[in-house]
Amino acid sequence: MADPLPISVVIVARNEAQNLPPCLASVQGWVAEMIVALNDTTDDSERVAKNLGAAVHRVPWQGYRDTKNAALALAAHAWVLSLDADELVSPELRRQLEAFFARGDGTRFAG
Fold first, then answer.
1. Residue 33: other Cβ atoms inside 10 A
2. Which end of the chain, C or N, has fewer beta carbons within 10 A?
3. Among candidate residues 6, 80, 4, 97, the one with its CA nearest the CA of residue 37
4. Half-sphere exposure of 3 (CA within 13 A, CB side)
5. Under a CB-based contact definition with an 8 Å cutoff, are residues 15 and 42 in contact?
6. pLDDT digit string (tens) for 80-105?
């Protein structure tokens, strides 16, 4: 397998144990980092996310924008893909991202 792309995937979630497996599976193994930022979760989301290899952080709800920004601040990479727990990265988007980084485009914009 090739090296993972230098992308952090960040997911803000609350009670998304059922949606996290397909979401994380759509990026697992080809991105450098998966972060799940949980707020007020009462289901099994934390265990599910950790079992799938995601780093899990508790982030208090501060409204949509501020909670999303707090979660984005946890990312280690300059390139971040922000997903909702019910979203999947399609094979076509993955191919486009791989092509983008293969061309070296990612190094031109990363800070």
1. 19
2. C
3. 80
4. 5
5. yes
6. 999 999 999 999 999 999 999 999 87
Q: What is the C-alpha separation between 63 and 26, in angstroms, rounded?
A: 27
DSSP 51-78: HTT-EEEE-----HHHHHHHHHTT-SSS
Query: Quick one: tokens of 108?
Result: 């031109």
Phi–psi pair at 12, nearest 5 degrees: -95, 130
Query: CA–CA separation, 54 vs 56, rounded Å?
Result: 6
Collapse the DSSP code of 99 into the 3-class scheme (helix H, G, I; strand E, B; otherwise coil) and give the result: helix
Distances (CA, A) of 84 to 3, 19, 49, 71, 100: 25, 9, 13, 12, 23
Cα 111 from Cα 88, distance rounded (Å): 27
What are 40-50's pLDDT values in tens digits? Answer: 999 999 999 99
What secondary structure letter does DSSP report for 4? P
59 near 87, Cβ under 8 Å?
A: no
Phi, psi of 94 (to 5 degrees): -60, -45
